[in-house]
Specification:
By secondary structure, the protein is α+β, with helices and mostly antiparallel strands. The chain has a single domain (26-168), classed as Nuclear Transport Factor 2, Chain: A (Roll), CATH 3.10.450.50. Helices cover 37% and strands 35% of the residues. It contains five helices and six strands. The protein has helices spanning 2-21, 27-46, 50-54, 70-79, 96-105, and strands at 63-68, 91-93, 110-121, 125-136, 139-153, 156-168. Strands 2-1-6-5-4-3 form a six-stranded mixed beta sheet.
């Protein structure tokens, strides 16, 4: 009988302590934190803030994959003057550092707008999915769909992966 009582007390104690360890952030709070990540992402692009941008990511070498539409690849390849130049890729893997450093070097203002933003989270991981438009000055350079995978770390929410489609503007810049 004593063993049964001791086992019950031990089980109850472990259940309470384990439930506290397994606590996920409230999803309403998570959504608010993720919305702040989205705003910071946009603002660091406009402000060419490399350090601020990089703090949004789990690490430097996350998945950062763009897939170009067939039309964009065809237009790019048709524009090549030298047949020995490399053909445009359908899929391109880069990273957040390369992205923001190219923006920081550019003379013109760059910005990214998001619409139809959808956030799905359980409080520990999240997916953000949206339509985006990337602007160079007042020129609509490219657009598509973008998806982020995020994780909640000891240091807050971090972007762990970015995958996006790219439709390059077929109308040349003036």
């Amino acid at each position: 009988m004593r063993i049964a009582i001791a086992a019950s007390v031990l089980f109850f104690g472990l259940s309470i302590s384990t439930s506290q360890l397994a606590y996920a952030e409230d999803t309403t709070v998570s959504r608010q934190h993720i919305e702040q990540i989205i705003d910071t992402f946009k603002n660091t692009i406009i402000n060419k803030d490399i350090a601020g941008f990089m703090r949004l990511f789990l690490r430097d070498n996350i998945t950062w994959t763009g897939v170009y539409t067939d039309g964009s690849v065809e237009r790019y390849n048709a524009s090549l003057k030298d047949p020995n130049e490399p053909r445009g890729p359908k899929v391109e893997n880069t990273g957040p550092r390369r992205f923001i450093e190219n923006i920081a070097k550019a003379k013109e203002v760059r910005s990214e707008t998001f619409s139809n933003v959808r956030i799905d989270t359980d409080g520990d991981m999240a997916q953000v999915w949206f339509d985006y438009t990337f602007m160079v000055g007042d020129y609509k350079n490219n657009w598509g769909k973008e998806s982020w995978q995020l994780v909640r770390t000891e240091n807050g929410w971090k972007i762990a992966a970015v995958v996006y489609s790219v439709e390059e503007n077929p109308i040349p810049r003036r």
